[in-house]
Amino acid sequence: MATNFSFRPYGEKAYHTGTAIPVFSLKSDRDFGIGQFSDIKLLADFCHQAGLDLIQLLPVNDTTVTKTSKDSSPYTAISVFALHPIYLDLEPLIKYLDTKTLKNYEAEKKHLNELSETDYAAVITGKLKYARLAFDAVKKDLLTDIAFKTFVKDRQFWLPAYATFNYLLETFETK
Length: 175
Hints:
The protein contains five helices and two strands, in the order E-H-E-H-H-H-H. It is mostly helical.
């Protein structure tokens, strides 16, 4: 009979517990029909309270090509660096929208959040539309902003190719 049984399966090594989760399943009242990057903070707070110390996310890289559910697999990334825009939190951007657009945004957000299943095409199309409108409202100032210029400069090894790919994707509607 063994007498050295232990509940510490890794001996003196650190023992960790955690969860693996796709970002799309993290949903809060602030979301636009799908979980988003800012919801990870809510998950981290929950995990801390539950005594968990690890969070593993499914891949979060951009997979957008057709803007349909065909793009929904996190394992078909078009970039190893770019994050998926479907997980973008639009809330910090809505202050740049005009009153009519903001009203439309709120109605669309309410509709998407009430659905029992994620409408991938509506979510990605809507997020890109409102992000573009916010960008158009601030682009003149943004393009001269030191922090933005630094962001772009620090990512020169991948950002121009990614931007070019997306421009050509939009222009020719094919990858």
